[in-house]
Structure formats: C-alpha cells, structure tokens
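One thing: could you explain this record?
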Amino acid sequence: MRPGSMKIFKNFRDLSIMDLENAKKNKTKIVGLYCAFAPQELVLAAGAIPVGLCGTKNEPIAAAEKVLPRNLCPLIKSSFGFAITDTCPFFRLADFVIAETTCDGKKKMFEFLRRYKPMHIMQLPQSSDGTRTFDWWLAELSVLKIKLEENLGAEISEDSLRQAIKLANRERRTMKRLHEINKIDPAPLSGLDLMTALWSNNFNEDKEEGIELVNGLIGEADEIAGNGTSPFPKGTPRILLTGCPVGLGSEKVVMLIEKCGGSVVCLENCGGIKTLGYLVEENDQKDPLEALAERYLKIPCSCMSPNSGRFELLDRLITEYKVDGVVDLTWQACHTYNIEAEMVRDFVKKDFGLPFLHLETDYSSSDLQQLQTRISAFIEVTGRKKQQ
C-alpha cells in the first residue's frame, strides 16, 4: 500500500515552480541555497523564499564538463551545468544565491557560478569545536545578514529572525517525525518514497503548506502501519544509507537496494535525517544570531575535521532503526566522504558487527549492472545474518 499523497510529492517540484513564478510576480524575493550550512532562517526573516539548488541529475553534466574537469564530483557538475544551460528554473528565478566553502571543488566552482548570479560565499570553518571557531562562524552569519539586507532591499529584525527560527524548527520537527515513521518494522514507507518527500521539500514555496502536506503523509503512513501493511514483507533486511546526499535523478542506489530485496529505512545524509535533529534554541533572552551559529555548527559533515558527530549520529540511528546493514554512498571525487568511508566501515563492523558496503559511483547509469551485482550479494549476506 502506497500513501496517496505521494502523487503530490512526485509532482511537487513542478507545482513549486508555478508557485515561485507567482511569488516573483508579486515582488517576493527568492534565494537559492546549495548546502545545509546555509541558514534558511535569515532568508525567511528577510521576507524571501529559500529554495534548494543542489543538482541531482545527470543530464546537465556534459555541458559542465566543457568548463569543469571530468574527474569532479557529479553533484558539483550537475549544479553548475543546470545553471549555465539555464535548465534549472529555481536558479533562473533566484534573485540571490548563498554558497559556501564546504569542499575545494564547490568553492572553486562558485568562482565561475558567481558570474551568473549575485552571490555571497560563506567561509565555513573546518572544525566545529572551540571558541575561535564559533566566533568565526558567528562573524560569517553577521556578514551574510548584511549581504542579504543589501541585495534583497530588506531589513532583518531580531523579531522577524525569532519568528523564522520557530517556523524552521517546526518544519524540522515535522520532517523528523516523517523519517522516524520507518522505525516501525516492517517500514510503512519505502526508502524511495521517503527520499522523494524529503527532497521535494527543498522546493517548497510556502512552509506552512509544506508542513501540512507532510503531516498528511505522516497520517497516511501511520494508518498503513496500524493496518499491519508495508511495501516490504516481514523480515526484509533493514538498511541504513549513509554518505553523500541523494535526490530524484541520483536515486539509483536507493532504488537498487530495494529492487534487490532490502528496505532503506533511514537516510543519514544532508537531505535525510542528518540535519533534522538539530534545532535552533528558541530563547528570547539569547541573541538569535548566536543561536543560529550554534545550531548550524552541529551539522556532522565530512568537511569537518574531526567529524565525531557523524559517528554519534550513526550509533543512535543504527540502534533506533534496528538496522541490519549499512550502505555508504560516495559520489566520485568526493574525497572527504571517500576517506571517511574506511572509518565508517570500522565503526559499523567493530561496534555493531553489521554487514557494510561502500559504493563509489556517479549519476550515470553506466554501472547499474555492476552496482546491482554488488548490492544483491550484500543484501543476501545481510538477510542470512538477520536470520541467525
């Protein structure tokens, strides 16, 4: 049984384009974001609409490779290709873009991309620990606030920022509840549907309507679970997918895991649950910009060194979701995630004794057969271990 509201999420991106075009006609500003470190609360407080721009499709990569090296992360090439070919309506509609220095490839790509749109590049610290790091990041948020005000012709007041924090926190709580539905065994949502709903939310023009829509999906999933039904037979191996972000167009690993007999119950990545558990402190006695800085520095990204937060999160998710195996996905040339994969392998095997599979791939379909062979063998091993 599949939730009926998934039909809306499937077409959500196209519907959002029309909503954003109407908002643009009404003089509402639109700000494009490429990363989870970009604070959407500042955009909302400026009276603008934040939208995701991260590329998840293979089609624009050929155009990007005329400028960028071929041996570069497909996410970076896809993002750049969409922009220079004018095939991403969200980039076209954006009045301003927030970029960040999470990795070398992205920060150099942004030097090209800023030729196409007004942009501010946030200088992200490479560690989340210490007073000096916090002061650095707080200063970066202060600069971003000024840049947004200048480029959008808006004032970001303390009151509007506090209201935006509350709204963004409500959205995170709702999305986290949706993700946690799959703690039920067997999972009431397929990994592909869970990914689609989470990914689609990046393009939402009206957060209140988006929260309501997700609450509707949660209600349907609760009903499916209450009826004892699921997209998966009882005993299906429960898989946690960690590593690089995925979305529609780059979902092939999620699709293959479930095609091969697994159930992706948890997505531990930037577009999944990784950022949803970290809320901004809602304290009227505290500087809201400081509260923002504290929250965003907690995101356990592989660009941080050390990245102990990722292992703390994995520890919790493996236990809470009763995971039977872990798949770690790395997009080609994503060096930070590729190096961390060995640490994750040791952690999963030594601390939990679970089957582990590391996959390095790109957005193309050229390796589908090879991936299917490896994933099928992994699911078979995971299934046997689950039965022991």
In short: The two ends are 29 Å apart (CA to CA). The first strand starts at residue 30 and ends at 33. DSSP finds 16 helices and eight strands in the chain.
